[in-house]
């Protein structure tokens, strides 16, 4: 599973894991959070902008691009850590959707009473992930997040 469903610069096989890693998750919580985010905005994207085929095309392409950016960052920083999850693909979809309707109001389910514009969300996500790269936070694959978000935008 780790060989083909996780993304690592140290891996002998680079291409297939770039595709398959977006369908693998560390835990059920990881999978659940990612799928909740997709569920919360996918209907708007599919019904108003993309349609089902383009939605999946953007998802898969965004996931592969975010994996490529992640691998590039790992090669530059000489990191052999593995990455997996759908976050890069999801952020590509979120970036696209937020740019189509930048005035939309978004909320974080765990922070009641706080909302913000879709445009502010993209700026905040990018700033968070840039800070994560600069300060070498390791909880998330910040390079993949930036790659996915920028691809969607």
3D structure, described in words:
This protein has six helices and two strands. The protein is mainly alpha-helical. The chain has one domain. A two-stranded antiparallel ribbon has the order 1-2. Helix 3 packs across helix 4 and helix 3 (28-77) crosses helix 6 (142-152). The protein is globular, with a radius of gyration of 15 Å. The N and C termini lie far apart (32 Å).
Uncertain parts? none
Can you give the helix content as a percent range? Answer: 55-70%
The domain tally reads 1
Backbone structural class: mainly alpha
Name the overall outline. globular
- SSE string, helices as H and strands as E: HHHHEEHH
Spatial arrangement of strands, main beta sheet: 1-2
Question: Which percent range describes the beta-strand content?
Answer: under 5%
Number of strands: 2
* Biggest beta sheet attributes: 2 strands, antiparallel
Treating each run of at least 4 consecutive H or I residues as one helix, how many helices? 6
Radius of gyration in whole Å, from Cα? Answer: 15 Å
Mean pLDDT: 86
CA distance, first residue to last residue: 32 Å
Membrane topology: Multi-pass membrane protein
Keywords: Hydrolase, Membrane, Transmembrane, Transmembrane helix
Family: Belongs to the peptidase S54 family.
Protein name: rhomboid protease
């Amino acid at each position: 599973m780790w060989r083909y469903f996780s993304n690592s610069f140290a891996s002998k096989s680079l291409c297939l894991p770039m595709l398959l890693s977006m369908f693998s998750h560390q835990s059920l919580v990881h999978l659940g959070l990612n799928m909740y985010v997709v569920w919360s905005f996918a209907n708007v994207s599919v019904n108003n902008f993309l349609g089902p085929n383009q939605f999946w095309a953007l998802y898969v392409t965004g996931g592969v691009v975010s994996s490529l950016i992640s691998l590039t960052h790992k090669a530059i920083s000489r990191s052999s850590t593995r990455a997996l999850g759908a976050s890069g693909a999801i952020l590509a979809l979120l970036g696209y959707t937020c740019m189509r309707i930048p005035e939309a109001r978004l909320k974080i389910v765990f922070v009641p009473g706080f909302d913000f514009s879709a445009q502010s969300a993209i700026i905040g996500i990018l700033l968070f992930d840039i800070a994560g790269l600069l300060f070498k936070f390791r909880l998330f694959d910040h390079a993949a997040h930036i790659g996915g978000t920028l691809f969607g935008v």
